[in-house]
Amino acid sequence: MTTSHSARRDYRGLVPPALLLLAWFAAGRLGWTNPTLIPPPEQVLAVAWHYLGSGELFRALAASLARDLGGFALGALAGIGLGVLLGVSRWAERLLGPTFHTLKQISLFAWIPLLSIWLGYNDGSRVVFIAVSAFYPVALATFEGVRGVTRAQFEVARVHGFTARQRLTRLILPAAAPQILTGLNLGLVYAWLATIGAEFLLPAYGDIGLGDTVIRGRAAFNVALVIFGMLAIGGVGVALNRVFHRLERRLLRWRGDPR
Amino acid sequence: MTSLSNTLGPLPLAAAPSWPARLAAPLRRAGHWAAGLLLPLALFALWQYAVRHQWLAEQILPPPALVWQSLGELWYSGELRDHLAISLARVGWSVLLGGGAGLVLGAALGLSRTARAYLLPSFELVAQFPVVGWVPLLIVFLGIDEALKVAAISLAVLVPVTVNTHRGIVGIPRPLLDVGRVYRFTVPQTLWRVVLPAAAPSLFNGLRQGVMQAWLTLVFVELLASSEGIGYLMVWGRQLLQLDLVVVAMLTIGAVGLALDLALRWAESRLASWRRGAF
């Protein structure tokens, strides 16, 4: 089925982007479009060159990534913690589960106005928001993974006289690892979405980040900058996914089968 | 090990359970319900207590009574319903547009090897872009009116619907298609009687993810640029420092999210029974 992914590279996939680029280039050359509204590709390249050369892009990228990964780490740790707790203890699930499942229904961005009042327009509220965004998918997946640990596996652990700590680190976490990693992947995707969203919606004066760059570009009607920023944001999303999948494969190698 | 736990399980009790035993199950279920309510109640009590003792300013933590009052006022003046109707209309149109486009694209990717070769790499790449990142560019082209909202939300719906449609069709077991061929099904017949029922769970999964993404993106777009809708209600409350309005809007957003989730679950169970009938 997945022949297109096999060893020989299929170049037909390059056709749509090439056509798009060609049309974009031709449109600028032949004067079909208003160059302020749709700047020609070379203008976007010029902007890219300027931002790469001045180091502005790297500063923005570093600021955004620090926010993203910081928030993700906080949210993911909390999510794994709650997920394990809910999965291991029936009582915890009865006490906390309904509240958790209800709060989950509140659309992510709806937290932003409340956070902006409680924590202000600053990096702190952005990071908290990113953490919330990563928290739900990780907690949910961890919970499901831990629930999937079978009775038989627990019996073996008991026979071997595992302590509670050993049960956690040597039974529960490894057994639930595939689901936890799936949840972490989803959490990473949401964290990046939330990073950009937070940079748009919680603008702090003088703050830097890819989202801030794009917002400034829009305010100045610098469409080339908006397009470049969007491509950079998308590129980071793709790169984060790639890196994560590589890590995932390495982490799950002990299981023998690649899922 | 399983045999051990099996023999240790409850021994078969053939005799009818006595009265207390029959009451035990509902009582236990009621107990679980009550346990689930403990945390919200405790949080509510803490909220009330904090307000009573003025730990925080009213602009930062509105009293529950005020939230309740605002909810009533907004509801009876029809304002809340108007905002909600506008937001739901945006979601509805976007699910139709984005979902329709996703269905077509996903079906093309699933049914045609050529379409897959040309389009799948680009789609897989672009699908990893966060939707939110498109919005400033869409604002440049479309302004900040209705078109922006519908376009952004449609994009958010398009991705999961396409992915799941493609996956559902590619995952159809070959023997099913062969059976269709043996019966000399026409193309529409194959689509309607083999492909659709076989891919239905995946299609539905796509719809469900699409609706949830739509609801997420709606709130984002309305917070960023709008003059009406449930997200705008939050922006307005935020600007006036009336946190009660913000909380009312949050509760509404949560309630609608819950309602959408329940409705889709219900539809999924109906779908499962239709599917059994189809085969």
UniProtKB/TrEMBL annotation, chain A:
CDD domains: TM_PBP2. Its main location: membrane. This is ABC transmembrane type-1 domain-containing protein. Residues 61-244 form the ABC transmembrane type-1 domain. PANTHER family: ALIPHATIC SULFONATES TRANSPORT PERMEASE PROTEIN SSUC-RELATED (PTHR30151:SF38), ALKANE SULFONATE ABC TRANSPORTER-RELATED, MEMBRANE SUBUNIT (PTHR30151). It comes from the Bacteria. It holds the Pfam family BPD_transp_1. It comes from Chitiniphilus shinanonensis. The lineage of its organism: Bacteria, Pseudomonadati, Pseudomonadota, Betaproteobacteria, Neisseriales. The keyword Cell wall biogenesis/degradation does not apply. Belongs to the binding-protein-dependent transport system permease family. It is found in: Cell membrane. It is a multi-pass membrane protein. The keyword Transmembrane helix applies. The chain crosses the membrane at residues 12-32, 69-88, 100-121, 127-150, 171-193, 219-244.
